[in-house]
Every structure is written in structure tokens, then in C-alpha cells.
Amino acid sequence: MLGFDRKAARYTLTSVGVVLLLWLIFQVRSTLFIFVLALLFAYLLSPLVDLLNRALPLRTRTPALALAYVIFVAVSAFVIMQVGATVAVQARAFQQDLPKRIARFEEPNPKLPESVNNFKTQLVQRVREQLTEGAGDIMGTVAHAGLKFLTFAGELIYVVVIPILAFFFLKEGPTIRNNILAMVEDGSRRILLEDVFADIHLLLAHYMRALVVLSVATFIAYSIFFALMGVPYGVLLSAIAAVLEFIPMIGPLSSGIAIVLVAALSHSHPLAVLVFLLVYRIFQDYVLQPYLMGQGVEVHPLLVIFGVFAGGEIAGIPGTFLSVPVIALVRILFLRIRKARLAARLAAPPPTVAV
Q1: pTM of whole model > 0.85?
Q2: How far is CA 63 from CA 41, 167, 171, in A?
Q3: Which of 94, 212, 230, 271 is deepest in the core (most CB within 10 A)?
């Protein structure tokens, strides 16, 4: 006769609950992405808020939050006016100049082998096909994923959802954390949850701030190099590369292809540009990025590649953007749970041996 196994029933209910939770997350992934962006935006502003909160002799964080938002808006407006105007002018000039550059690039060069001239012809035909299919310009061809992300993010900013949510995260974040911890009784599980929260806090703080620094560093380095080499539309190309730094792997690859193509069409030392991009990528991936990210965001490159493609299949550009922090979060949970189990085993009394 079959009996009722409470342990098996508990495991079964837990598995069903996890599956339902994952299904619910998938169904509301668009809304969840908005909240995640707001949380990351809050982590971006949190150092400034903490600094102002210590400087202002007030008991609440609200004045510091309001002043931080004013400073952020002022700095953003200044950057947009200084850089955005140049980017817009160069974008219009590039769109008008693109057909002429394609025609000059297509002309056979008697100094080059026939195979190279044939490759140039095939490349031009491919570019023209993409243009006639509605790509708009070469940037839309090679960085389509990045531009979709920009459009989506811009729509969210216009409706002012993300800053409002970020305001509540900054204001009520400690309260939300304490309320969640209060739901767990004192003991090993609460200690584990506190450790996980601390690791997640450091992870998101390092990740978001590192992305911003990497983006700014990319813009500055590219702008200086393009100005020295005489690459046309340098500010436009640098701005595109800086924004696409927020998309792991796919973003830098797309911007690199676009930059090399523009340099080739303009006869602006494409080989030197390619070498610079490779050297800068090695420096950023193996020196600057590990230093900024810290140990909490260490993810194996194979996992990054898997996460990028898997995230793109599941949720498109948002999934690609969140692939690295999600994998890092899973890694944190795995390491913390394993550490807690090992500590519990070591703390357990040794088994008694019957004589």
C-alpha cells in the first residue's frame, strides 16, 4: 500500500512553486525590466545621494535625493547640449555623404588584387541591399540591436517611470530590506539571507558604476584616437560605441564593425583603426573592466557568451543587457548556499560510535 511521504510532497510543491514563479517572471518580463532599470539607476545615483546626505544636517534622505536629481538632470542636460548637438550634426552629414563614399569605395583600385576588388564589390552590394530594406544607414545595419535598446530606453525615460521608481528605491531601500529580513526567523537562514543581500548590493553597485565608467572611457579614448587619425564623424562613432558598451559582447562587436566600415569607406587608415580597437578591447576586458567590476562580478567568458545568447532568445535586447548580472546573481546564490551547507556540516557534532 502506498503511503504519503511528506518530504517528497514538500519537494514536489517547492518544484511546482519555482516553475510557476519562473513562468510568472517570463510573463511580466517587460515590466520587470523597467523595475530592474530603475534599480540600476538608483545604484548609479546612490553614491551622490549618500554624499549629499552626509553633508546636509537633516534626518531624512528626501532633500539629498531631490538635490541629487537636480544635479543629475543639470549634468545630463549639459552633456547633451555639448555632445548631442555634435552627434546630431555628424549623423545628418554622414547620412548625406554615405552614397558618395560607397560609390568611391566601389571603384576598382588597380593597385589591389582582383580578389580584393571583388570583395569590395560584394561588400558594397550587401550594404546597398540593407539600405534598400529600410536599415536607414550603415549604423542601423551593423548596430541594429543597440539602436533598438536605445529606442526602448528612451521611451521609458520620456514617460518618467524609471526616475520615479528609482526615487522610491533610494528612499525606501533600507526599509524594504529590513521588512524582508523580518519575515525570516533568527538563525542560519537569516544570516544566509543577510549575506546574500550584502553580496547583491556590492554586485549591483560595482556593475552599474563600472558600466558607466567603461562607457565614458570608451567615448574619451575613441574620440581622441579618431581626432588624431582624422577619422570622419569621430564624435558620432564614439558616442555609438560608448552607448553600446552597455550591451555585453554584442554591443562592442557591433560598434567595432561599424567603425571599421566607416574608416574603410573614408580611406581613413582602416587597418590602424582595427588595431586600435583590438588593443583597446584587450586593455578594457583584461585590465580596466576587472579592476572596476571587482571580484563579485567575476563570470567566466563561456558563461558570458551563453548568457548573452540565451538572454537574447528569452527577452531580446533586455535579456542580453541583463545576462551578466543575472549570471553573477546565480553564482552568488550558489556560493553562499554551498558555504552555508559546509559551515553547517562542520558545526554538526560528530556521530557517536556505539561500543
Answers
A1: no
A2: 18, 12, 10
A3: 94
